[in-house]
Amino acid sequence: MTIKKLLISNRGEIASRIIKSAHDMGITCVAIYTEADKNTPYVREAEQSFKLSDSYLNAKEILEIAKKNNVDAIHPGYGFLSENANFANNVKKAGIIWIGPSANAIKKMGDKLTAKEIAIKANVPTLPMTSDPKKANSIGYPILVKAAAGGGGKGMRIVEKAKDLKESIKAAEREAEGGFGDKRVFLERYIKRSRHIEIQILGDSFGNIVHLGERECSIQRRHQKIVEESPSPMVDEEMREKMGDAAIKLASKLKYESAGTVEFLVDEKTKEFWFLEVNTRLQVEHPVTEEVTGIDLVKEQLRIASGEELGYEQIDIDFY
To answer: Is 194 within 8 Å of 254 (Cβ atoms)?
Structure first.
C-alpha cells in the first residue's frame, strides 16, 4: 500500500507540518482551504490545493475532492475530523488509506465510559467511578462530575459535599448536552493535588506497540494545556516504565494502530496514577516528543498506514 498522493484534511500549522514530512518521503500533497486561508503558506506548499464551499467539517466534500483527484490517503491532522469515526470509516470504504487508528478504536475511546471499561479489562489503573448518583458515597468526596462524551472541561463539576451533588449533575448534563449533544455524565473520585501526564504511543498492523515516553501537561488554564514538557520533573525511570507498560496494555487491548496518546492522572504525594482517556490522533504537542526521541511521528504514521512494521522495539528508543 504505497502512498504517493496525500490529502491533508486540515489547515494552517499542522497542514504545513504534515506536508514537510510527506515531502521528505517523496509524497505529493493535496491541500484544502476556505476563502480566509487562500493565501496561507500551507496552500502554496502543497502541489495541489482545492477550495471548500464552506468549512473544514464538510466531510462529504473533502472525500469527493480526494476521490476526484486520485488521492491514496487522507491525514486528518488534529481537531476538525481527526476523531470522527464516521469520517474514518467512510474514507476506508472509499478505498482510501486513513492515516490514524481504526474507526472502531476512535469510537470506543471517544466515549469516556467505554474507555474506562476497556482500561479496567486491560488491568490498567482507573479511579473509582459510577454512573449512579446513589452510589456516590462509595467513591467518597470530593467527587468530579464528568461528561461521558467530549472534553476540554465542558460538562465537568467538582463536588465537595453530598448536598451539592444533584444540582452539579444537572448543570454538567446541561453543559454536556449543549457542547456534545450527549447529556450523559458519570462520577469519579477527585484528586486535589495531581499531575496530568500523557504517554505517546505508536502501534502498527502487526501488533507491535511502543511508547515514546511522557509529556507533562499539568500547567493548564480552564482545563486547556498551556505548557508541555518532557521528561516530566516527577517521573523517574521506574515510573516511566510502569506508565508506559499501562499505556501499551491498553493499546494492545484496542489493537491500536498509528500514533496516539494515553493520558493519566498522577497523585503528587503517592505517585499513584490512573487512566484518564486516549487521544486517538496526532496531538498539537507532538513535537515535544519528537525533540526528545528524534522520531518523526508523522513519518511513522505514514509508514504504519502503508503497512510497514515499526522496525524497532521499546529497548531501541532513547530519551535525551
So the answer is: no
How much is the pLDDT for 241?
A: 96
Going by the DSSP 8-state scheme, the letter that residue 111 receives in this structure is B
CA nearest to 57, candidates 110, 11, 5, 104: 11
Active site residue 281: yes
Which parts of the chain sit beneath pLDDT 70? 150
pLDDT tens-digit series, residues 291-315: 999 999 999 999 999 999 999 999 9
Tell me the CA distances in angstroms from 123 to 15, 18, 116, one per residue in order. 37, 35, 11
What pLDDT, on a 0 to 100 scale, did the predictor assign at position 256? 98
Of residues 11, 17, 184, 281, which has the active-site annotation? 281
Name the strand (E) or helix (H) holding 105: helix 103-110
Distances (CA, A) of 145 to 25, 153, 191: 46, 10, 12
Q: Tally the residues of the chain.
A: 320
| Pairwise CA distance, residues 265 & 271, whole Å | 9
d(CA 136, CA 186): 10
- Strands 273-279 and 258-267 come out as antiparallel
Interacting residues of 75 by C-beta distance below 8 A, sequence separation 6+: 6, 7, 8, 9, 10, 18, 22, 99, 100, 298, 301, 302
- Report the pLDDT value the prediction gives residue 179, as an integer from 0 to 100: 81
Closest CA to 73 of 51, 91, 50, 96: 96
